[in-house]
Structures are given as C-alpha cells and as structure tokens.
Design a protein that fits this description.
Length: 71
C-alpha cells in the first residue's frame, strides 16, 4: 500500500476487506461510520483502477503482498 500513498486508515480498511470483513464489520472494528468506509474504499478503487471489492482485494494482493499482512 505504500505505492498508493494511502493513509493508515486506508491500509486498515484494505487489510480488513482482504480478511473478508463486510463494510459494516470494518466500520465497527475501526470505530468509524459505514459511509466513511465506503468513502475510503472509493479512494482505493480510483487509485487501483478497480470496480469491485473483489478486484480491490486481488489488486492489493498482487501489488502489495497483502497476504503477508493478514497471515
């Protein structure tokens, strides 16, 4: 995620999504609103040029070896 210039919140969200959390679960885990999670996910979608959560997780896994973060 370093190449994205993503902040800590985007990194946390990406890791939780990769672990299979839903947006409401991510929001609860991080103590933020669901709309905040959605906003941050949109940011990540734009930066990685993806259109779905599944594509986001795949792109992050390929580019940033997120598997090492969730193991």
């Amino acid at each position: 995620l370093m190449g994205l210039q993503a902040g800590p919140r985007q990194k946390d969200i990406a890791i939780l999504l990769a672990r299979g959390f839903t947006y409401p679960e991510v929001a609860a885990e991080l103590g933020v609103s669901v709309s905040s999670v959605v906003t941050q996910v949109r940011f990540l979608f734009q930066k990685l040029n993806v259109n779905s959560r599944e594509e986001l997780v795949v792109a992050l896994g390929q580019q940033y070896e997120i598997q090492s973060l969730i193991s």
